[in-house]
Design brief:
By secondary structure, this protein is mostly helical. The protein contains three helices and three strands; from the N terminus they run ααβββα. The chain starts with 37 loop residues before the first helix and ends with a helix.
């Protein structure tokens, strides 16, 4: 998935109280660990979350709902914060390689 252009609408077209994520492609916040562009997409999503003053509420909602993806600038899997997404990506790639070899 390409995310070269993540802004869907110009920021100045949004209401004053709009969250930064509302002008961004929602897929950006759900990177696939097996995708080679995972880390780039993850960092892009975290950059969008960075200036948001509601990131702690967003993170709490993601944890409470058992969500996966970027919530409040943190990468979650099933509501748990993944401390090292790069390590998670490597595990996912190894799993995919093992499945391919077994097929």
């Amino acid at each position: 998935m390409r995310h070269d252009k993540t802004v869907l609408r110009q920021r100045d077209e949004l209401p004053e109280n709009a969250l930064p994520c509302t002008a961004t492609d929602p897929d950006l916040f759900h990177p696939d660990p097996s995708d080679p562009g995972f880390m780039k997409q993850l960092y892009a999503a975290q950059t969008v979350c960075g200036p948001c003053d509601r990131s702690s509420t967003c993170l709490k909602n993601g944890v409470a709902s058992g969500s996966s993806g970027v919530w409040g600038g943190q990468y979650l899997e099933y509501g748990l914060v993944v401390d090292d997404p790069a390590h998670r990506r490597n595990l996912s790639l190894r799993t995919r390689q093992r499945r391919k070899a077994a097929a």
